[in-house]
Design goal:
It holds the Pfam family Glyco_hydro_16. It is a single chain. The protein has 272 residues and is mostly beta strands. The longest helix has 4 residues. The radius of gyration is 18 Å and the shape is globular.
Length: 272
């Protein structure tokens, strides 16, 4: 774990001057922009009623929910439940093992997906203003994940941020950031937990800037980690709320479990 306490205010600041804004999403509603977002979590590995997100749009942005009656995303993987929006999709035919984020061997495509490149940059900058859930069973995350059209070598991930409810406090919170290899043989796992002098259940901004050489991570425009590796293939953006239940019991009084996304901005390198 790394800390960002003493030198927090003096850290290098995010410079947007080399980028052009191409996605500016406030989630104000009344309807989700289907030209940008798929409101399912990795729908190829499961069925539509299990992958469908629970959410609301409004003046405060996107409210992601996990409801008491929400089914598990993939029952054989346990009780994990997810509400997610993503900017792309890709899979092979039903019965195949071809698809994004194959997190374990033996996965089979159940609901084939069209190839959708709603926003799949190869380099750029993503920033999101978030309010995480303090529930100890929840995680709010923003990822950039390989679209995987080019096979396993195009499956890497930029983990913009993961915020676990059991790692958040009123004066200090831990944010997980970094690069995940998945099946990309050119990447190595480089994920760190950064302790920050913030309450992540309140609004803060989280960002990652990447190209094929490096990836830099920011919280409230301050650099918190740099990885000397990057990707050059299309990545889809994913914004999601997870619940990792500890048992099968569902007390309706403890639901919905919620997190908020005030805004998401996506940039691509400006023409030279």
């Amino acid at each position: 774990m790394t800390g960002a306490g003493a030198g927090w205010r003096a850290q290098e600041r995010l410079d947007r001057s080399g980028y052009q804004l191409v996605l500016d999403e406030a989630f104000a509603g009344p309807d989700l922009d289907r030209g940008r977002w798929v409101d399912h979590y990795l729908p190829h590995w499961t069925t539509p009623e299990r992958s469908a997100a629970r959410y609301a749009l409004g003046p405060d942005g996107l409210r992601l929910r996990v409801d008491a009656d929400q089914p598990a995303w993939l029952p054989e993987d346990g009780g994990l439940r997810v509400s997610n929006l993503q900017t792309g999709s890709f899979s092979g035919p039903a019965g195949s093992s071809t698809g994004q984020m194959a997190h374990r061997p033996g996965l089979v495509v159940r609901t084939p997906q069209p190839t959708r490149r709603l926003w799949t940059p190869t380099a750029g900058l993503v920033e999101a203003v978030l309010r995480a859930s303090p529930d100890p069973t929840c995680m709010l995350a923003v990822w950039l994940v390989g679209l995987a059209e080019g096979g396993p070598a195009t499956t890497g991930e930029v983990c913009v941020v993961e915020l676990f409810g059991d790692a958040l406090g009123r004066t200090r919170s831990t944010a997980r950031v970094g690069v995940k290899a998945h099946q990309d043989p050119l990447l190595r796992e480089d994920v760190v937990d950064v302790r920050l002098p913030i309450d992540a259940t309140e609004e803060h901004s989280y960002a990652a800037a990447w190209d094929e050489r490096s990836t830099r991570f920011y919280v409230d425009d301050r650099l918190v980690h740099e990885s000397r590796q990057g990707t050059a293939y299309p990545l889809q953006l994913m914004v999601d709320l997870f619940e990792f239940p500890v048992d099968e019991r569902r007390d309706p009084a403890r639901y919905p479990k919620e997190a908020w996304v005030r805004r998401v901005r996506g940039y691509e390198p400006a023409p030279r």
